[in-house]
Amino acid sequence: MDGTTIVEALLLGLVEGLTEFIPVSSTGHLLLLGHFLGFENPGKSFEVLIQLGAILAILTVYSGKLLKLVRDLPRDPRTQRFVGGILLAFLPAVVIGVLAHDFIKTVLFETPMVVCIALILGGLVLLAVDRMPLTPRYADAMDLPLPVCFAIGIIQCLAMIPGVSRSGATIVGGLMLGADKRAAAEFSFFLAMPTMAGAFAYDLYKTAAVMTAESTMMVAIGFVAAFAAGVVVVRGLLAFVSRHGFAPFAWWRLAVGAIGLAALLTWG
């Protein structure tokens, strides 16, 4: 592995950690940046496997709350409903992810134009939702009813199109279904844990045979960078969203999508 490859893996890991939990599509950013850098990895596994760093970032920041959930789970009905809601929301991604895995990796991940269009459309949706006079019914992620959790899980499956954004889909879904901005973002954090862990495990199972020592080292570098950047983002995101809403992310998506589209049309 040469120095350039190490720098690229480090840069892509930082981008993963910085964008995983905000509604701008980390996978879309990684695919576009990797395309223009000429970054290659077996089976497009790097973009999925380095998400483990982001998962550990959530576990680190939310360790206290997670331990409380584990302690309260055997005896507290509210905690039981919340954990059940997370698992229920996770189920649609399991089914569609397994069925569509090969199409996603060999077609959608290999089509940067799809990423740019999804970034732009998603930015327009975020702007529209941010300006809607929504009346929240749920101020705490733990109070979301099970049917709402399942509906958010179905909406999350849109993020299998790179550029849509998993966090963006789940947050917008939560807002439209009655959660306030903080509750929607926090539910998205918790749903990310089984979703990203499942994607990591299944992708590792599918691509382990083509992984080399060099590609494994690239994943390790990206993982460390994603973890460090993810901790910073998770610690500050809820407060930022509560103050500023989602418009800044929408404008970022529009800018990145438009620049990527222009670059693809100009240079391919």
The number of strands is 0
Arithmetic mean pLDDT: 90
Q: Report Rg.
A: 18 Å
Write the element-wise H/E pattern from the N-terminal end onward: HHHHHHHHHHHH
Termini separation comes to 27 Å
Please give the largest β-sheet: none
* Overall number of structural domains: 1
Number of helices, counting only DSSP H or I runs of 4 residues or more? 12
Tell me the quaternary state: single chain
Which parts are unreliable, with pLDDT below 50 for 5 consecutive residues or more?
A: none
Overall 3D shape? globular
Question: What can you tell me about this protein's structure?
Answer:
The protein has 268 residues and is mainly alpha-helical. The protein has one domain. The mean pLDDT is 90. Keywords: Antibiotic resistance, Cell membrane, Cell shape, Cell wall biogenesis/degradation, Hydrolase, Membrane, Peptidoglycan synthesis, Transmembrane, Transmembrane helix.
Highlighted features:
268 residues; globular; antibiotic resistance; undecaprenyl-diphosphatase activity; cell wall biogenesis/degradation; hydrolase
Summarize the structure.
One of its GO terms (molecular function) is undecaprenyl-diphosphatase activity. Helices cover 78% and strands 0% of the residues. It is mostly helical.
Topology (SSEs and partners):
Layout: H1 3-19, H2 26-37, H3 46-49, H4 51-61, H5 63-72, H6 77-108, H7 112-131, H8 146-156, H9 166-176, H10 181-207, H11 213-244, H12 247-267
Helix pairs in contact: 1-2, 1-11, 2-7, 4-10, 4-11, 6-8, 6-10, 7-12, 8-9, 9-10, 10-11
